[in-house]
């Protein structure tokens, strides 16, 4: 499994590299198979890709800047460059790459499928080793296009820049990472169900199914109904027919997120190896503590003490000045509900915080990318905005109310320090129509 997961920003759009790609084998329950793989590997978001009557899933764990809605780099490049190519692309400076220490994305597609080691960020030495391995697998035959920077001086290659390839303002929804448990649209389900039915069928049935797309749609609908039942069982709330296309049923309420995060955030050690605690954050999936190095303390001091705690991860930035530790937590999705219109959502939020009183900052409006055909069938063409409130105590940001479509995003705690007193920040999202 590839642990080299990175978020790379190209022309203002975030792409995720380092997905765990696996071919799905089950012709009639591929999403169940994908969920089982995700559970086994600790991954919760997915992108699907069909190739030669097979369906492939690219899986990754959310968190550490990776989130649903981001684009899969490998899938996006495959969509732009076609089904047979291998490429080495230099990352722009500031995207994990510097003039002194350049980093490269290696990606490729073989007959529509993402190639082994073909969705990864490497240094120059690692690129040469991987290219040799791909050559031994006959993946660099002359009939396949091969891209690489001139500076690497790799034979039979031409240079191609990521900025020139990935320059669209909007990409197909099929390139996006979606929640693994729920969230795939009917078209996405049919996309792989049809492919896998062909794989699992005999020759006679193959011809019948190939000529009858309704079978794929029927299987997709059965899968959707099962997923809807699972959503309702998990949340205890009735789900609309189109709930799998909406983000809010799978997200925690504001109160659930706050309650799940606040106690763990208060458990941060004051110091680790002499490094001083300077921030805590929680997004409902991970609690993260940040520490600032103090004079005469070392990276080794921090790592030695941090590794003695029961943290899921321990990291230090390249400058050796900031250390980060943390662990995973779980929150429960709230479930489906009828969301308010834009004005009602805004006024309900402002009214609540006027009564505390706290200023509420509204920003980050986002339009849905829901399929217009689904809207015609009755699905909600939703919008959302983010909001933020800041207070000196956690009690003042405690959400004593619930508005339909109101969901948790993250909490941040800045302890008292040279910049002033303590600060608690609550970020949420309101879905409206």
Description:
Helix content is 29%, strand content 28%. The strands form 4 sheets. Strands 12, 13, 14, 15, 16, 17, 18, 19 and 20 form a 9-stranded antiparallel beta sheet that branches. Strands 3-5-4-11 form a 4-stranded antiparallel beta sheet. The relative contact order is 0.10. By secondary structure, it is α+β, with helices and mostly antiparallel strands. It is globular. The longest helix has 23 residues. It has 12 helices and 20 strands. The chain has 3 domains: 174 residues, no CATH class; 70 residues; 100 residues.
Map the helices and strands.
Blueprint lengths: L5 E5 L2 E5 L2 E5 L5 H12 L3 E7 L2 E7 L10 E2 H9 L2 E7 L13 E7 L2 E10 L1 H13 L8 E3 L14 H4 L12 E2 L6 H15 L2 H8 L2 H23 L18 H12 L5 E2 L2 E8 L3 E7 L6 H8 L6 E4 L5 E7 L13 H13 L6 E7 L4 H5 L6 E9 L2 H4 L8 E9 L8 E10 L1
Parallel strand pairs: 2-6, 7-10
Antiparallel strand pairs: 1-2, 3-5, 4-5, 4-11, 7-8, 8-9, 12-13, 13-14, 13-19, 14-16, 15-16, 17-18, 18-20, 19-20
């Amino acid at each position: 499994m590839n642990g080299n997961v990175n978020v790379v920003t190209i022309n203002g759009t975030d792409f995720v590299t380092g997905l765990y790609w696996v071919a799905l084998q089950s012709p009639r329950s591929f999403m169940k198979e994908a969920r089982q793989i995700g559970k086994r590997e600790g991954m919760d978001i997915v992108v699907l890709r069909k190739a030669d009557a097979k369906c492939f899933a690219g899986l990754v764990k959310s968190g550490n800047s990776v989130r649903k809605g981001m684009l899969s780099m490998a899938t996006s490049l495959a969509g732009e460059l076609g089904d047979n190519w291998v490429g080495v692309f230099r990352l722009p400076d500031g995207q994990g790459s510097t003039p002194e220490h350049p980093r490269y994305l290696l990606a490729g597609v073989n007959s529509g499928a993402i190639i082994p080691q073909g969705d990864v960020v490497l240094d120059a030495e690692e690129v040469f080793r991987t290219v040799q391995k791909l050559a031994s697998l006959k993946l660099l035959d002359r009939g396949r296009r091969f891209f690489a920077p001139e500076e690497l001086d790799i034979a039979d290659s031409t240079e191609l820049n990521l900025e020139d390839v990935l320059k669209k303002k909007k990409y197909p929804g099929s390139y996006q990472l979606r929640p693994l448990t729920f969230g795939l649209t009917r078209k996405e389900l049919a996309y792989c169900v049809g492919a896998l039915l062909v794989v699992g069928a005999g020759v006679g049935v193959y011809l019948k199914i190939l000529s009858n797309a309704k079978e794929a749609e029927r299987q997709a609908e059965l899968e959707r109904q099962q997923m809807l039942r699972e959503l309702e069982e998990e949340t205890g709330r009735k789900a609309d027919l189109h709930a799998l296309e909406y983000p809010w049923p799978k997200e925690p309420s504001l109160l659930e997120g706050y309650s799940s995060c606040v106690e763990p955030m208060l458990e941060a050690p004051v110091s680790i190896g002499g490094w001083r605690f300077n921030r805590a954050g929680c997004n409902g999936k991970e609690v993260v503590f940040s520490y600032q190095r103090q004079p005469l303390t070392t990276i080794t001091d921090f790592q030695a003490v941090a590794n003695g705690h029961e943290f899921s991860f321990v990291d230090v930035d390249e400058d050796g000045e900031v250390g980060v530790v943390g662990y995973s937590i779980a929150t429960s999705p709230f479930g489906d509900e009828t969301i308010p219109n834009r004005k009602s959502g805004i006024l309900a939020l402002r009214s609540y915080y006027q009564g505390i009183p706290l200023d509420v900052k509204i920003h980050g409006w986002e339009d849905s990318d829901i399929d217009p055909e689904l809207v015609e069938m009755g699905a909600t063409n939703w919008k959302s905005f983010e909001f933020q409130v800041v207070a000196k105590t956690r009690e003042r940001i405690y959400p004593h109310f619930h508005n339909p479509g109101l969901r948790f995003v993250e909490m941040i705690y800045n302890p008292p320090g040279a910049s002033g007193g303590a600060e608690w920040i609550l970020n949420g999202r309101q879905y409206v129509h």
